[in-house]
Amino acid sequence: MKDPIYLKKVTSLQEDTDREYCRTKPDREEENEKGDGKKKEKLLDVGFFQLFRFATWKDTLMMVVGGLCALVHGAASPLMLLVYGMMTNTFVAYELEVQELADPNKTCINNTITWINGSIFEIAENTTVFCGVDIEAQMTMFAYYYVGIGLGVLIVSYFQIALWVSAAARQIQRIRKTYFRKVMRMEIGWFDCNSVGELNTRISDDINKINNAIADQVSIFIERISTFIFGFMVGFIGGWKLTLVVIAVSPLIGLAAGLMAMAVARLTGRELQAYAKAGSVADEVLSSIRTVAAFGGEDKEVERYDKNLIEAQNWGVKKGTIIGVFQGYLWCIIFLCYALAFWYGSKLVIETKELSPGTLIQVFFGVLMAAMNLGQASPCLEAFASGRAAAKTIFDTIDREPEIDCFSEKGHKLDKVTGDIEFHNVTFNYPSRPDVKILDSLSMLIRAGETTAFVGPSGSGKSTTVQLFQRFYNPKEGMLTLDGHDIRSLNIQWLRSLIGIVEQEPVLFATTIADNIRYGRPGVTMDDIIQATKEANAYNFIMDLPQRFDTLVGEGGGQMSGGQKQRIAIARALIRNPRILLLDMATSALDNESEAIVQEALDKARMGRTTITIAHRLSTIRNADVIIGFEHGRAVESGTHNDLLEKKGVYFTLVTLQNQGNDMPSPDNETIEEEILQSFSRGSYESGLSLCNSLFLLKCPSYSIFPQQSKEEAEERVEPAPVARILKYNKSEWPYMLLGSIGAAINGSVNPIYAILFSQILGTFSIRDLDEQRAQINGICILFCAVAVTSFFSQFLQGYAFGKSGELLTRRLRKVGFQAMLKQEVGWFDDPRNSPGALTTRLATDASMVQGATGSQIGMIVNSLTNIGASFIIAFSFSWKLSLVVVCFLPLIGLSGVFQAKMLTGFANEDKKAMEAAGQVSSEALANIRTIAGLCKESTFVETYEQQLEAPYKSAKKKANIYGICFAFAQCVIFMAYAASFRYGGYLVSSERLHYLVVFRVISAIVISGTALGKASSFTPDYAKAKIAAAQFFKLLDRVPKISMSQIDGEKWDDFKGELEFINCKFTYPTRPDIQVLNGLLVSVKPGQTLAFVGCSGCGKSTSVQLLERFYDPDEGRVLIDGRPSHTVNVPFLRAQIGIVSQEPVLFDCSIAENIQYAYLHDFVMTLSVLDIPVLSLTQKYETPVGAQGSQLSRGQKQRIAIARAIVRNPKILLLDEATSALDTESEKTVQAALDEARRGRTCIVIAHRLSTIQTADIIAVMSQGAVIERGTHEELMAKRAAYYKLVTTGAPIS
């Protein structure tokens, strides 16, 4: 029989390698990327025992006791072998006695067989034959032994797991708290060098890796090593010769197990890397879906995605093949090893009589068990290694002393602050860019109670001075003083509490408006808040919101427009009642109306305070007491507005540049755009949106309308998909699947065959005739060799065939899924459930989960079924009574397998969920660290984070007990099963004359099938998940888009003129159904005319463009194109006629040429004029890669490439949505000229905030609240002296 323990070890080895490679995919991938050399260095730094540096004496005690328990547990299996060996001897002796006593002339006297005539019966070598074995009593005794061992195991294995897991939970809790607290204490310069994303992963993943390295893995490692040692001891005590023979072969087994684990890990890493490329393509495409749709690039993108999938597919197939080869090799070696050991062992039993049959078994399995356990200990080492690597970064941070410690109590607090600030020869560079000098011996004085304005070109160090004064950084040389005291000598928290700051990009936290304002100063009343909002001109818009002060502002303030966020931030600064007010472009994100009012609020707020203002719009700082001009990190001039104009220096140049060519003072929009864009790309879920400015209020999905629970419900309601449909996608691979199933069936029957051969060998020991005995043993050994070879091929077949079919299916599903996503209308992407991140994850995980329901899964099922079927047939045909007794234990053995699988998967998910809340706190805190530091709110976030950690900690402690109980149960079931079945077997042998070989055969066959059953059932959770994943997938495939993208639906015509008409269009965004964006829009353009939309943010200018592109259809009214209603026109045809340049152009991660060609395949030299400067000055010309989202180019260069991309299509309609907003004055002129050229003979719609750019338009339509309030040419409208005139002359509001 195949010893069940041993078998259990083999199958669990299999599970461990599977589990292992599942658990450490990310670590492996990281390690591969980092290269092996680094890996070695990295691991040397944190010693294994240093991982436990956060353990208290109580934790240490728990771990020591747990370790001892593991040691004892490890000795249980070898101990059981001793019992097993004695039992075998008893059976053999009994059988021999029965055979002798079958002769009626023999009888048993005084435990010796004698002839009836009284002379003692002797066999060949003049030895007597022992008799009088009381088989039942013996078996009862053995049963007690088994039960005793089983109970011992139950107790120690519970403590082994529970103590280690709970000790680890306590330490991890401490590490998390210490780490987060330390990170929050770091100076800002440290955050410049560590990205927020990286810190978040460290908090979640790296600490989990440490957890893996110090929890149950350690105890399991101790247990396995202890089994290894005791196994060898049992072997050597029993018979050293056989032990040495088996030892000689066993490294081959260990080697195979180790190599397989490594190969699988490495290949999985490769496969993930290859998929990561495809994933990044998908992410890029989905985040800029509007650009893809506008330029009709859907098919091109699907191809690009599929190209990257092929590589991942090939790695996957390789992985399947290699697993097959190694599995085959492993089983082949194991069976050959059996053949050798039994052949040599039987020699020792029969010829030299060094061993008894029992010791033969004891030695053989002892050594085998030792070897297997050594092999299984290696995955634990891997967990330790990745834990140590992860601990390196964590502990380095924990041990680092911050240069500027915001929690420190040190430093003076001045009794009276007047507010004189002086810079003495300050030199500074940012820690992340040590070679760029930002401030160069800057000296200046800011007097108390005065308003000082800083002006100068971007990058001249204006904002840096403000950050130095907040003590985010220390100057490299020189010093800053407040009222004559070096600020390094002052208490940080106190210093920051004097300062109110309003930044160019205000950061709000994901809570209510009132709470955001409360962050300014602890313990303020509601009246104070209302007062502050009134001063900041925020009160009115807050009272208009449905929930007023309790309105949630969304993640990063994403639910508020730029102006609203800015005013809340101003209220937050004012509520502090600061001595010193820092305004860093505070009004840049506002439209004219709000700017005027906020400016007034700020003027009020500045009274009697020292104020520093930084502005690009010079109109806002004319009345400052002192204006300081910056250039190259120095203060080059200072004085009032008029003084500086006379000096004709930096200030003069800036003023003339801003007024040049405008017959009205136009605010410098460049900065607004930047603000809006940056706050947009950070704040909301759709950073790639191109047409965002006027949609500010509208675009971000409102979570107040989409309550969180609807998201959950939608996820829950998915019906699992029928398997038949999943298989349909796999049907072209049926030959592979058939081959794989045949292989699996052969593999399944190997174990039952093994049970027959094994029991047969035991049976041979009771044959009297030695020649007969030898012949049988040799025959059985040859059969073992045959089984070995067969199983090598069948394992390989199963691995390869299912690997191949599964990977093909995954790739097909991913491609089909991606295609289906790109077919959806743009409105679908606005739903937060379909954010680019969520969709990319869905492509990555759902497709590979579906593979879980087919492919290797089918192999597992076929394998298990044949295994169970064959075992049952064997068992019941030999002895149905014994079979029934053993079968009673099957559910328990099976259950224990399920339990263990469940434990590992179930807990992982719970942990993730529990950590999510804490993760949100930490990521919000780290992303907005500057704001938090400025408000001195670090400790608040640390407290919140620690509260959020309580829940996961409690669940981890509960988990320790549950996991312990299940583990203990699973470990002891097998001992109990043995006790009962062998006891009953003994009864059958004595009372029903059953041959003992049948007892071994039945028990081993059924126990084997039990482990197979456990293995099959441990895959059920995967299977259920696969069905649900598939259902979500099919739901996506079956969804009919509201706006069909197909090439055939809708009409096309040849002489496309480009005449456009909007007739009473009404529209609301699907995600914000309560806000009317367009309200009866009525406007028309004749072919070749230019129509300009002007109006304040949120009045629906860009929305009208989106209706024209058919991203959305109007709720009421019609859009006519050449007199045909837009919803009857073929969408790809319509979009091919339109070229669009948006305010924030989206470029793809490829070369400039490919970006320009994106829209069209014709030659594109004609567009060179537009590109003008950028391309030719770049070294690789058109082949220059633009980087992810165009990051390698400046804003102006991106904008010009986008314009070239639009013109290259030779469109009939040109849509310019603030096309020149991102350019500086110089490039704007060049581009504007190019655009005027491009507009000739085309219908053109322009949206602009800078009125100077649209004076030449044929029609100017002034919009307000979703409707046109006046239209005409520039001259007509100026003559009307209504809204447009006011806008031009005063910059007054138009709503």
TrEMBL record:
<dbReference type="Pfam" id="PF00664">
    <property type="entry name" value="ABC_membrane"/>
</dbReference>
<dbReference type="GO" id="GO:0005524">
    <property type="term" value="F:ATP binding"/>
</dbReference>
<dbReference type="InterPro" id="IPR039421">
    <property type="entry name" value="Type_1_exporter"/>
</dbReference>
<dbReference type="GO" id="GO:0090374">
    <property type="term" value="P:oligopeptide export from mitochondrion"/>
</dbReference>
<comment type="similarity">
    <text>Belongs to the ABC transporter superfamily. ABCB family. Multidrug resistance exporter (TC 3.A.1.201) subfamily.</text>
</comment>
<feature type="transmembrane region" description="Helical">
    <location>
        <begin position="322"/>
        <end position="343"/>
    </location>
</feature>
<keyword id="KW-0813">Transport</keyword>
<feature type="domain" description="ABC transmembrane type-1">
    <location>
        <begin position="738"/>
        <end position="1025"/>
    </location>
</feature>
<dbReference type="GO" id="GO:0015421">
    <property type="term" value="F:ABC-type oligopeptide transporter activity"/>
</dbReference>
<dbReference type="InterPro" id="IPR036640">
    <property type="entry name" value="ABC1_TM_sf"/>
</dbReference>
<feature type="region of interest" description="Disordered">
    <location>
        <begin position="14"/>
        <end position="36"/>
    </location>
</feature>
<feature type="transmembrane region" description="Helical">
    <location>
        <begin position="218"/>
        <end position="238"/>
    </location>
</feature>
<keyword id="KW-0677">Repeat</keyword>
<keyword id="KW-0067">ATP-binding</keyword>
<protein>
    <recommendedName>
        <fullName>ATP-binding cassette, sub-family B (MDR/TAP), member 11a</fullName>
    </recommendedName>
</protein>
<keyword id="KW-0812">Transmembrane</keyword>
<dbReference type="InterPro" id="IPR003593">
    <property type="entry name" value="AAA+_ATPase"/>
</dbReference>
<keyword id="KW-1278">Translocase</keyword>
<feature type="transmembrane region" description="Helical">
    <location>
        <begin position="143"/>
        <end position="167"/>
    </location>
</feature>
<dbReference type="InterPro" id="IPR017871">
    <property type="entry name" value="ABC_transporter-like_CS"/>
</dbReference>
<keyword id="KW-1133">Transmembrane helix</keyword>
<dbReference type="GO" id="GO:0005743">
    <property type="term" value="C:mitochondrial inner membrane"/>
</dbReference>
<feature type="transmembrane region" description="Helical">
    <location>
        <begin position="777"/>
        <end position="802"/>
    </location>
</feature>
<dbReference type="GO" id="GO:0016887">
    <property type="term" value="F:ATP hydrolysis activity"/>
</dbReference>
<dbReference type="InterPro" id="IPR027417">
    <property type="entry name" value="P-loop_NTPase"/>
</dbReference>
<feature type="transmembrane region" description="Helical">
    <location>
        <begin position="994"/>
        <end position="1013"/>
    </location>
</feature>
<feature type="compositionally biased region" description="Basic and acidic residues">
    <location>
        <begin position="19"/>
        <end position="28"/>
    </location>
</feature>
<dbReference type="InterPro" id="IPR003439">
    <property type="entry name" value="ABC_transporter-like_ATP-bd"/>
</dbReference>
<keyword id="KW-1003">Cell membrane</keyword>
<feature type="domain" description="ABC transporter">
    <location>
        <begin position="1060"/>
        <end position="1290"/>
    </location>
</feature>
<feature type="domain" description="ABC transmembrane type-1">
    <location>
        <begin position="64"/>
        <end position="386"/>
    </location>
</feature>
<keyword id="KW-0472">Membrane</keyword>
<feature type="transmembrane region" description="Helical">
    <location>
        <begin position="734"/>
        <end position="757"/>
    </location>
</feature>
<feature type="transmembrane region" description="Helical">
    <location>
        <begin position="61"/>
        <end position="87"/>
    </location>
</feature>
<dbReference type="Pfam" id="PF00005">
    <property type="entry name" value="ABC_tran"/>
</dbReference>
<feature type="transmembrane region" description="Helical">
    <location>
        <begin position="962"/>
        <end position="982"/>
    </location>
</feature>
<dbReference type="InterPro" id="IPR011527">
    <property type="entry name" value="ABC1_TM_dom"/>
</dbReference>
<feature type="transmembrane region" description="Helical">
    <location>
        <begin position="244"/>
        <end position="265"/>
    </location>
</feature>
<keyword id="KW-0325">Glycoprotein</keyword>
<feature type="transmembrane region" description="Helical">
    <location>
        <begin position="884"/>
        <end position="905"/>
    </location>
</feature>
<keyword id="KW-0547">Nucleotide-binding</keyword>
<dbReference type="GO" id="GO:0005886">
    <property type="term" value="C:plasma membrane"/>
</dbReference>
